[in-house]
Amino acid sequence: MLGELTDREIERVLHDEVLARIGCHVDGLTYVVPIAYAYDGECIVGHSRDGMKLRMMRENPDVCVEVDRMDDLANWQSVIAWGRFEELIGVEAIKAMQKLVLRMTPLMTSETAVPTHGLKPSHTTTERAALYRIRLTKKTGRFERR
Hints:
Blueprint: E1 2-4, H1 7-16, E2 19-26, E3 29-36, E4 38-39, E5 43-48, H2 52-59, E6 62-72, E7 75-88, H3 90-104, E8 130-144
Antiparallel strand pairs: 1-8, 2-3, 2-6, 4-5, 5-8, 6-7, 7-8
């Protein structure tokens, strides 16, 4: 059976999952990239080194986010949300990093699973991670159940 997710089911998928795909669009080019995220009930929170995704979101902050849960090919849920990218600095960036750390810590099963890129200066770069949120403005979801 195919169907539409309720608002409550959409919220559950967004809260439970940690991998999303962000779609950005600038100058006729669409770019979709996976991210690890935390969801606070209003915003997707993420971090990234400078690169194509950040440059595109800075230029066009209107983005699309996709999150799915898949048990098997006949049992899945998918959420599509639209929102606006906001780069965070200062206290807001610290709060965002705390949300990410709280969400990701239970999933870190070994020392090599701890993300370190961009969180502190390395011997090759002084570049730090950019913290951001995507304030969701519209959400929809679909499912298939056997």
